[in-house]
Write a structure and sequence with these properties.
It catalyses: L-threonyl-[protein] + ATP = O-phospho-L-threonyl-[protein] + ADP + H(+); L-seryl-[protein] + ATP = O-phospho-L-seryl-[protein] + ADP + H(+). By secondary structure, this protein is α+β, with helices and mostly antiparallel strands. The two termini are 47 Å apart.
Length: 824
Amino acid sequence: MSFTQTQSFGRFLVLLCFSLTITISSGATTISVNQPLSGDYTIISEGEQFELGFFKPGNSANYYIGIWYKKIKSNPLSIVWVANRETPVSDRFRSELKIIDGNLVLLNESKSQIWSTNVSTTTTLKSAIAVILDDGNLVLREGTSNSVEPAVWQSFDHPTHTWLPGAKLGYDKRTKKSQRLTSWRSKEDPAVGLFSAELHPSGKEYVFKWNGSQQYWTSGAWDGKAFYLVPETRLDYNYIYSYHENVNESYFIYSVYDPSIISLFILDVSGTIQQLAWSENNKELNLIWFEPKTQCEVYALCGSFGICRQSGSPFCNCLTGFNPRSESDWNQSDFSSGCVRKTDLQCGRNMEKQDFLKIRVKNLPPNNSVAVGSAGECRTTCLNDCLCNAYSFVAAQCLVWDGNLLNLSEDDGSGNTIYIKVASKDLPRPKKSNNLIVVVGVVGGVVLFLVVVLVLIYRKKRVSLSVGKTTMEGLLVAFVYKDLQIATKNFSDKLGEGGFGSVFKGVLHDSSIVAVKKLESISQGEKQFRSEVSTIGTIQHVNLVRLRGFCAEGKNKLLVYDYMANGSLDTHLFRGKQVLNWERRYQIALGTARGLVYLHDKCRDCIIHCDIKPDNILVDANFHPKIADFGLAKLVGRDFSRVLTTTRGSMGYLAPEWISGVPVTAKADVYSYGMMLFELVHGKRNVMHCEYSSNTFYPGLVSSVLMKGGDILSLLDSRLNREACVEQVTKICKVACWCIQDEAESRPAMSLVERILEGVSDVSMPPIPQIVNLFVENTGDVVFFTDSPSKECSLAQSNSTGGEPNRRVHHLKGNSLSSLLCSH
């Protein structure tokens, strides 16, 4: 399963192909000796949060006993626990879940026991009951449904693929065993899959394994606040993670600030761990975060003879000469079954019908053996060995593989070469230089071209009948322009506009609401545009707006995004009737920082946004920030600086290097982010008009209050009535001043900003930004000086030293200053 393409839209597709057949609730609350569960009967928790009964995944013919969120039971991801994972039943009406001899037991249609709680108990036959609690825990105990008797067995001690809030996930020091999350075998088979996650005996980190043995990822050590490699587990506005240890056990537990939020922590069939939350507004489960971020880190993701390409879509492909073992599984992004040869290898006399496919891989597959000989002898050894599937000659050593090849990942530039044995006829044929072939090829090419043109015309006519029938590289939808015209009512419902073009609200044929951006100033050809858009489409993060698709027809270049009902931050900050409270403002600042960290540091290539401002920060139904327009600077290309410098409303956020001609780096985004932080505190634009003074230029006022140790809450949006955390306001003001330092080298990286806002790192008193001095001390045409980067001007120091510094001179006329800072 790929995550750089599959977020909410991917889950929509899953819904279509994986609709669950879940029984209709009967309203019962317990299972007892005299009240078994069968057929369409279910039991429901007291607060109607969870439900237990028989369910059938997708098109499977099998039924299972499971627990699901009652409110969203039509969603396949609502299943949180499965009892009989390995032993399904075929007839739910003749099967029973009942109490027998103090145990909860499942009997199949033949009345054979196929699952049991298997506890040794003194509970009498008449008093044992099974109850599902409002936290999703199925408990077996004595008494009645309202009894407070301790549980003799509970499902929380036996998790399947989901970790629920309130449940322990830990290590038992007495039995030396860990509680494991184990993935489903496939999206329609809840049997134990290949991937598992468990707490390391050290109690400090979770390890992820393939097939119970091969570790492929770790959460990193717990530092008391978060896992090193999962910063999302740090205390935030939704979840609280905590670690507990005693003489008997060590475990982690997490809770949700708002108990009404439906939350899921699952180990997916793709081998990734995912945190999901239900959006009441969108009526879908949203992906909050997932790990590992690099999908190809998951061991054997593509199965045997499959190769993982991190930049590809989908991630997995079969090697040349191989086909998917199960087309249906691969169509559902389940690649674990791997690939099989198109043509079986011939052993004995037909060695000339076999050859080798040369590929470069990041790491050589495991389970090789060593043979003696040179590179040529190594090749001959493998060719003559009927069992040999591949060889590699590395460091003067011959390595051969007899079994299936697993964990192949495309070379990232530092890998090794491996030679895969395949049937000669399945390899690409070498080109031959022959005049006849050339002539035939040209004629054939012309004919083929005409056929292709006719086919494309025919397909175009067919495609226009339905929006999004074609896709480009996975789940990024290639829309037809005419269909987007219909969806947007001929681009009549305008949501806004910016330097890249206008945005319109649209409704697709499936009734889903989207935002359609009609791009301007795009001079790229269709092929290059598709390539760039494909790259943008692989960028997925909880704090980035998801790209759903595109349209590229001649001069018409459009992008289709998820629609954010709450619109952009500037609407709520500057024009909204309801005032954003401080907690939301702080979380918007933190979420935006996280999104920028992902763009700058965690994508394959550093992506500079170039236009960070409240107008480009969208907020979802829960006011989580999502950065819009990322990656569009690359689409516009060299014309981008002209687009920005002629864009209304962008000037107040541009770093000095945009004007002075210094090369633009990710620190330009840091500057823009700093300007936005000021506005989050103040609730107004930094500059409302072009008559500057220390009073009208808000960053100047902030610097003054910080340096003088004044009343920090006096800087706050007056509508908040001073209701804010003083420490947080001070922290944001200091960070903002650091972010708008004149020299890019003096500004912090966004990763440091993130750590500061999370409370991991401290922030010292910033020097007064030179741009503030510009307005406080000068008017008209200005010549201002900026200190060269030095230890005195680093984030680690609280004050600059005295003396005359080395200086570089920047001349900015009044009109240049207006271009840099004025929000018209």
